[in-house]
Amino acid sequence: MLIHIHPDNPQPRNIKTVANTLRDGGIIIYPTDTIYGLGCDIYNAKAIERISRIKNLDPKKAQFSFICADLSHLSEYARSISTPIFRILKTALPGPYTFILEASREVPKQLKSRKDTVGIRVPDHRITQAIVKELGHPIMSVSLPTDTDVAYYTDPEIMYDVFGKLVDIVIDGGIGSTIPSTVIDCTGGAAELIREGAGDWEHIVP
Hints:
This protein has about 210 residues and is of the alpha/beta class. About 30% of the residues lie in helices and about 20% in strands. It is built from eight helices and eleven strands. It has helices at about 10-25, 45-55, 75, 85-90, 125-135, 150-155, 155-165, 200-205; strands spanning about 1-5, 30, 35-40, 65, 80, 95-105, 115-120, 140-145, 170, 180-185, 190-195. Strands 1, 2, 3, 4, 5, 6, 7, 8, 9, 10 and 11 form an eleven-stranded mixed sheet that branches. Strand 10 and strand 11 form a beta hairpin. Helix 1 packs across helix 5. The relative contact order is 0.24. The model has no long low-confidence stretch (mean pLDDT about 90).
Protein backbone atom coordinates (compact mmCIF):
# COMPACT_ATOMS: atom_id res chain seq x y z
CA MET A 1 0.00 0.00 0.00
CA LEU A 2 1.28 3.46 -0.94
CA ILE A 3 -0.05 6.15 1.41
CA HIS A 4 0.41 9.87 0.80
CA ILE A 5 0.90 11.83 4.02
CA HIS A 6 1.45 15.57 4.10
CA PRO A 7 4.90 16.29 5.60
CA ASP A 8 3.77 19.45 7.41
CA ASN A 9 0.21 18.49 8.34
CA PRO A 10 0.01 14.68 8.60
CA GLN A 11 -3.56 13.43 8.17
CA PRO A 12 -4.66 11.77 11.45
CA ARG A 13 -6.58 9.01 9.64
CA ASN A 14 -3.50 7.97 7.66
CA ILE A 15 -1.29 8.15 10.74
CA LYS A 16 -3.70 5.80 12.55
CA THR A 17 -3.63 3.41 9.59
CA VAL A 18 0.16 3.27 9.76
CA ALA A 19 0.22 2.81 13.56
CA ASN A 20 -2.36 0.02 13.39
CA THR A 21 -0.31 -1.71 10.71
CA LEU A 22 2.74 -1.58 12.95
CA ARG A 23 0.76 -2.98 15.88
CA ASP A 24 -0.36 -5.86 13.66
CA GLY A 25 3.24 -6.76 12.83
CA GLY A 26 3.51 -4.80 9.62
CA ILE A 27 6.59 -3.23 8.07
CA ILE A 28 6.68 0.32 6.75
CA ILE A 29 8.95 2.51 4.67
CA TYR A 30 8.71 6.03 6.02
CA PRO A 31 10.36 9.46 5.72
CA THR A 32 12.66 11.04 8.30
CA ASP A 33 14.66 14.25 8.39
CA THR A 34 17.43 12.36 6.57
CA ILE A 35 16.90 9.24 4.43
CA TYR A 36 13.78 7.08 4.24
CA GLY A 37 13.76 4.25 6.76
CA LEU A 38 12.51 0.67 6.98
CA GLY A 39 10.67 0.21 10.26
CA CYS A 40 8.46 -1.93 12.49
CA ASP A 41 7.20 -2.18 16.08
CA ILE A 42 10.15 -2.74 18.46
CA TYR A 43 8.14 -5.38 20.35
CA ASN A 44 7.17 -7.51 17.35
CA ALA A 45 9.76 -10.26 16.91
CA LYS A 46 8.32 -11.57 13.64
CA ALA A 47 8.38 -8.11 12.07
CA ILE A 48 12.01 -7.68 13.13
CA GLU A 49 12.82 -11.03 11.52
CA ARG A 50 11.08 -9.92 8.31
CA ILE A 51 13.20 -6.76 8.15
CA SER A 52 16.33 -8.80 8.84
CA ARG A 53 15.51 -11.03 5.86
CA ILE A 54 14.88 -8.03 3.60
CA LYS A 55 18.22 -6.53 4.63
CA ASN A 56 19.96 -9.93 4.73
CA LEU A 57 21.08 -9.28 8.30
CA ASP A 58 21.77 -11.43 11.33
CA PRO A 59 19.53 -9.84 14.01
CA LYS A 60 22.16 -10.58 16.67
CA LYS A 61 24.81 -8.62 14.76
CA ALA A 62 22.67 -5.90 13.21
CA GLN A 63 22.69 -2.34 14.48
CA PHE A 64 19.09 -1.24 14.70
CA SER A 65 17.96 2.21 15.78
CA PHE A 66 14.99 3.28 17.85
CA ILE A 67 12.94 6.10 16.35
CA CYS A 68 11.47 8.15 19.20
CA ALA A 69 9.08 11.10 19.20
CA ASP A 70 10.98 13.08 21.83
CA LEU A 71 13.48 12.78 24.68
CA SER A 72 10.92 11.30 27.07
CA HIS A 73 11.76 7.79 25.83
CA LEU A 74 15.40 8.07 26.88
CA SER A 75 14.79 7.10 30.50
CA GLU A 76 12.91 4.00 29.34
CA TYR A 77 15.34 2.61 26.80
CA ALA A 78 18.72 4.05 27.75
CA ARG A 79 20.62 4.14 31.05
CA SER A 80 23.60 5.87 32.63
CA ILE A 81 23.17 9.15 30.76
CA SER A 82 25.47 11.72 32.34
CA THR A 83 24.55 15.38 32.59
CA PRO A 84 27.04 16.48 29.87
CA ILE A 85 25.71 13.83 27.47
CA PHE A 86 22.12 14.76 28.22
CA ARG A 87 22.94 18.39 27.41
CA ILE A 88 24.28 17.29 24.02
CA LEU A 89 21.14 15.24 23.37
CA LYS A 90 18.93 18.17 24.35
CA THR A 91 20.84 20.48 22.00
CA ALA A 92 20.82 18.06 19.06
CA LEU A 93 17.36 16.53 19.23
CA PRO A 94 15.08 16.51 17.42
CA GLY A 95 17.53 16.45 14.57
CA PRO A 96 19.55 14.33 12.10
CA TYR A 97 21.58 12.43 14.68
CA THR A 98 21.78 8.86 15.98
CA PHE A 99 23.13 8.53 19.52
CA ILE A 100 24.54 5.19 20.69
CA LEU A 101 23.68 4.76 24.36
CA GLU A 102 23.76 2.00 26.96
CA ALA A 103 20.59 -0.06 26.62
CA SER A 104 18.17 -0.42 29.51
CA ARG A 105 16.28 -3.58 30.44
CA GLU A 106 13.28 -2.26 28.49
CA VAL A 107 15.08 -2.80 25.19
CA PRO A 108 13.98 -6.16 23.73
CA LYS A 109 16.85 -8.66 23.83
CA GLN A 110 16.47 -9.20 20.10
CA LEU A 111 17.43 -5.56 19.50
CA LYS A 112 20.37 -5.25 21.86
CA SER A 113 23.82 -5.30 20.31
CA ARG A 114 26.56 -7.50 21.72
CA LYS A 115 27.83 -4.42 23.54
CA ASP A 116 24.40 -3.98 25.16
CA THR A 117 23.83 -0.65 23.45
CA VAL A 118 21.02 0.95 21.49
CA GLY A 119 20.90 3.66 18.84
CA ILE A 120 18.41 6.43 19.56
CA ARG A 121 16.95 8.76 16.90
CA VAL A 122 14.51 11.64 17.33
CA PRO A 123 13.98 12.88 13.77
CA ASP A 124 12.86 16.44 13.17
CA HIS A 125 10.00 15.25 10.98
CA ARG A 126 6.30 15.61 11.70
CA ILE A 127 5.22 12.37 10.01
CA THR A 128 7.69 10.30 11.99
CA GLN A 129 6.83 11.99 15.26
CA ALA A 130 3.09 11.58 14.65
CA ILE A 131 3.45 7.85 13.95
CA VAL A 132 5.49 7.20 17.11
CA LYS A 133 3.09 9.20 19.26
CA GLU A 134 0.10 7.33 17.85
CA LEU A 135 1.86 3.96 18.30
CA GLY A 136 2.83 4.83 21.87
CA HIS A 137 6.44 3.61 21.74
CA PRO A 138 9.46 3.75 19.39
CA ILE A 139 9.80 2.23 15.94
CA MET A 140 12.70 -0.10 15.19
CA SER A 141 14.49 1.24 12.14
CA VAL A 142 17.18 0.46 9.58
CA SER A 143 18.12 2.05 6.29
CA LEU A 144 16.83 0.65 3.01
CA PRO A 145 19.00 -2.00 1.31
CA THR A 146 21.76 -0.20 -0.56
CA ASP A 147 21.61 0.34 -4.30
CA THR A 148 23.46 2.52 -6.79
CA ASP A 149 20.25 4.18 -7.99
CA VAL A 150 19.75 7.45 -6.12
CA ALA A 151 16.06 7.63 -7.00
CA TYR A 152 15.64 4.25 -5.33
CA TYR A 153 16.54 5.95 -2.04
CA THR A 154 14.72 9.23 -2.47
CA ASP A 155 11.50 8.67 -4.45
CA PRO A 156 8.75 6.84 -2.50
CA GLU A 157 6.95 5.81 -5.69
CA ILE A 158 10.05 3.99 -6.87
CA MET A 159 10.45 2.51 -3.38
CA TYR A 160 6.92 1.17 -3.72
CA ASP A 161 7.74 -0.37 -7.09
CA VAL A 162 10.82 -2.07 -5.61
CA PHE A 163 9.57 -3.02 -2.14
CA GLY A 164 5.77 -3.01 -2.47
CA LYS A 165 5.57 -6.80 -2.21
CA LEU A 166 7.99 -6.99 0.73
CA VAL A 167 6.51 -4.34 3.04
CA ASP A 168 2.98 -3.45 4.09
CA ILE A 169 3.04 0.34 3.66
CA VAL A 170 5.22 2.81 1.81
CA ILE A 171 4.60 6.37 3.00
CA ASP A 172 4.94 9.08 0.42
CA GLY A 173 6.01 12.14 2.38
CA GLY A 174 7.88 13.75 -0.48
CA ILE A 175 11.33 13.25 -1.95
CA GLY A 176 13.86 12.14 0.64
CA SER A 177 17.54 12.87 1.22
CA THR A 178 20.54 10.70 0.35
CA ILE A 179 22.53 11.79 3.41
CA PRO A 180 22.12 9.62 6.55
CA SER A 181 22.19 10.77 10.15
CA THR A 182 25.36 11.65 12.01
CA VAL A 183 26.21 8.81 14.43
CA ILE A 184 27.65 9.64 17.84
CA ASP A 185 28.77 7.07 20.44
CA CYS A 186 28.07 8.21 24.00
CA THR A 187 28.88 4.97 25.82
CA GLY A 188 32.48 5.82 26.65
CA GLY A 189 31.75 8.77 28.91
CA ALA A 190 32.36 11.35 26.18
CA ALA A 191 30.70 11.87 22.82
CA GLU A 192 32.65 10.24 19.96
CA LEU A 193 31.90 10.83 16.28
CA ILE A 194 31.37 7.50 14.51
CA ARG A 195 29.90 8.67 11.19
CA GLU A 196 29.56 12.17 9.84
CA GLY A 197 26.22 12.70 8.14
CA ALA A 198 23.52 15.33 7.95
CA GLY A 199 23.99 16.54 11.53
CA ASP A 200 26.62 19.18 12.27
CA TRP A 201 29.01 17.58 14.77
CA GLU A 202 30.68 20.85 15.79
CA HIS A 203 27.30 22.47 16.46
CA ILE A 204 26.39 20.15 19.32
CA VAL A 205 29.68 19.19 20.98
CA PRO A 206 31.29 21.85 23.22
